[in-house]
Specification:
The protein has helices at about 10-25, 30-40, 40-55, 75-85, 95-105, 110-120, 190-200, 225-230, 235-245, 260-280, 285-300, 405-410, 440-455; strands at about 150-155, 165-170, 180-185, 210, 250, 325-335, 340, 345-350, 360-370, 375, 380-385. Helices cover about 35% and strands about 15% of the residues. Strands 3-2-1-4-5 form a five-stranded mixed beta sheet, with helices on both faces. It has a four-stranded antiparallel beta sheet with strand order 6-9-10-11. β2 and β3 form a beta hairpin. α10 (about 260-280) crosses α11 (about 285-300). It starts with 11 loop residues before the first helix and ends with a helix. It has about 450 residues and is α+β, with helices and mostly antiparallel strands.
């Protein structure tokens, strides 16, 4: 019967200790010098030497080798993590899957453990790592409300369950807190008006807003000569709103300049899409309901503390000044027939009191976010027109309500201008024209005889 020799595997550190202890045994070095070589105390070196003399090289092996760790995950937890990673959460990244396990399944698993379990069965992260270009990091604003970054993201948020939507959001630069967000059918000025109105009513008006150079924020119109001489720059409807709110509108020259909200889109296109999928949202109304509950969870996970406590947001103006604050503002000149024109619609104004006339006067038009169009003259509302379809309007677009019964309850109803009369193109006869002379029968007979007698 042969005797099987036991094989012993030593690590590099254990091999180094074995060599130094052999040098002590051969009296080549002292214990103090050996302790300095091994980086341990002299007391511990004597302890290692005693174990080596008693057990040989096996005494240098750590006592826990071959024993299972007390901190290892139970087999049931590992199977549950693998079941989610291979099933419903297959397209979740490692960090997102870790958050789901902790929040929804109460499994206190670290990200490193989740990554190790997934890689053990060949499941890589669904998102490829892309090396980022170097850039100078801009310092955050020190206090909440000093700068909000706003933008919109067009994405298949509902995947194949519904239409493609645009998500409009604002994030605070100091705290990474998403202060407001909403889904819209497309990116438009009304979406940003509704967003800023909701933010102003809940947390206040920020000191500055950081946006890109979209025509919603920067007017494409070139200033006229009179505007250039007066130092006036044409403003978009959103630019006029920020001026009324005394908010500084900063234009970004690159996506990297507003990197906080660009990074937010990367997070939401990964996490929010899955939240909408789990909720089964198929319409824009259902998506906004899911978004409302998701914002609190997102801010709790990703928001940070500002350098300075408190908020720099300002309150809204008094009730009397905010009536037409969040509305599209236009100016029109009243025609001689007491009508104004907007979006090829001719709207008739009510008669002025005391026999006065509004003809040739300049009136203000306020297009509210519910679609109503109010005409005012010298800060007094004259008439309100209701839209055919209620809801947030589009810039320079208005279609009045076609219901005649509804229009009769208004002071006036919109009418179409009559077709213009054709312009006379013939010249007016002179005063001495023959047509204007009295008819003389004898002169006419003589003129006829002369024509016949002429060769």
């Amino acid at each position: 019967m042969s005797v099987m020799e036991e094989r012993l595997t030593l690590s590099n550190m254990e091999l180094k200790r074995l060599k130094v202890l052999e040098m002590i045994q051969s009296a080549q070095v002292t214990v103090a010098a050996a302790a300095e070589l091994l980086g341990v105390s002299e007391r511990h070196c004597w302890r290692l030497l005693a174990r080596y003399r008693r057990y040989g090289a096996a005494g240098l092996v750590h006592g826990n080798r071959g024993r299972p760790s007390r901190r290892r995950l139970p087999a049931g937890v590992r199977r549950e993590v693998l079941a989610l990673a291979e099933g419903a959460c297959r397209d979740y990244n490692d960090q997102h899957l870790t958050d789901v396990l902790q929040e929804e399944y109460q499994l206190q698993v670290s990200r490193a453990s989740v990554r190790r379990i997934r890689r053990s069965v060949g499941l890589a992260s669904p998102h490829k790592y892309r090396r980022r270009k170097g850039h100078l990091r801009r310092e955050r604003y020190p206090q909440f409300g000093m700068l909000f970054q706003i933008d919109a993201s067009h994405h298949a948020w509902l995947e194949d369950r519904g239409p493609r939507l645009a998500l409009v959001a604002a994030i605070d630069d100091a705290t990474n807190q998403v202060v407001g967000a909403l889904f819209r059918p497309h990116e438009d000025a009304a979406g940003y008006f509704l967003l800023l109105q909701d933010i102003a009513q809940r947390v206040g008006v920020p000191l500055a807003v950081y946006a890109d150079r979209h025509t919603i924020f920067q007017s494409p119109r070139q200033p006229t000569l009179e505007q250039e001489l007066a130092g006036i720059t044409p403003q978009s409807q959103f630019g006029q709103l920020t001026s009324r709110l005394n908010v500084r509108l900063i234009a970004a020259h690159s996506p990297q300049a507003k990197g906080r909200i660009e990074r937010l889109w990367g997070t939401w296109q990964d996490r929010l899409v899955k939240e909408l999928r789990q909720a089964g949202a198929c319409t824009i109304e259902e998506a906004n309901q899911v978004l409302t509950t998701y914002l609190a969870k997102h801010n709790q996970r990703f928001a940070i503390a500002a350098q300075q406590p408190g908020s720099a947001c300002q309150p809204l103006p008094a009730d009397g000044d905010r009536q037409h604050l969040f509305s599209f503002h236009y100016t029109r000149r009243v025609a001689n027939d007491h009508t104004i024109s907007l979006n090829h619609q001719c709207l008739r104004l009510p008669p002025a009191p005391n026999g006065r006339s509004y003809a040739r006067a300049t009136v203000d038009l306020y297009h509210a976010m519910d679609g109503r169009l109010t005409v005012a003259y010298q800060n007094h509302d004259l008439i309100t027109f209701h839209p055919a379809v209620a809801g947030p309007p589009r810039v320079e677009t208005f279609c009045p309500q076609p219901d005649a019964t509804t229009l009769q309850s208004q002071p006036a109803e919109p009418v179409r201008l009559p077709a213009p009369e054709p312009v006379r193109t013939t010249a007016k006869p002179a005063a001495n024209h023959p047509w204007r002379r009295p008819f003389d029968p004898a002169a006419a007979e003589r003129a006829t005889l002369n024509e016949r007698a002429s060769p």
